[in-house]
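Z., the sequence and structure:
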Amino acid sequence: MAFAGAALAALFTGGFNLWADDRKRRLAESAKLVRKYRDPLLLEAQDLQSRLYSIACGDTLDLIDPNDPIEQENLYVYSSFLVGQFFTWTYIYRRQAQFMGGPTNEETRNLTAIIFSIRSEFNQLDVEPDRRPFRVWRGQQLAIGEIMTVREKDEKEFFCMGYAAFKERWDTDQTFKGWFMPVCAAIEEFYLARKRHEPLLDQRLRRLQHLLVDLICLLDPKGLQNVQPAYTPLAKD
């Protein structure tokens, strides 16, 4: 009986140690994944929040010359690229994370939560009176992430395509360009409203900018790579 008890205890201890070692390994892998994608996620969040802030509170819309194709490209095409860049790097991160499974550390959970909040804000139905400006459905978000994900020759890693490649696809592939029409349509509405001195239906855009700043603070809490951006004012109830 004593021998059986000792054997059972040894079996339990061995099983627990295996579980503990596996959990420790998965937590380490989770932390490693965040470190791996910290910089690209941080950079794309900085770029996108800056563009959203400049549209909502800056002079980007006021200074655009409608007869200058370069300025038009900067407003419509580059803004679309920045939105797509966010969807792409979050798509790549989620693609890698889904194969890990198991427990995650607090930093990973917080990162996953804020990415989910940003993607949900893009998809929200009740942000604006007409529920339309700057809304990108989840399926569109996923498709944009897929079509902008590339793998360089002789490289195992996935990347977001650069702006030159994006612009070439934009100019030559109408199907590719079509995925970004919700972004272009929203910017066009903002641009025309500003010219008519009408209020912009931009609360979704402003809330997205807030969430992106939150993401920046999470990824770079000490501000080592960037001074913390300002939040855009939100409409008062």
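DSSP finds nine helices and two strands in the chain. The radius of gyration is 22 Å.

Let me know what you think.
H.
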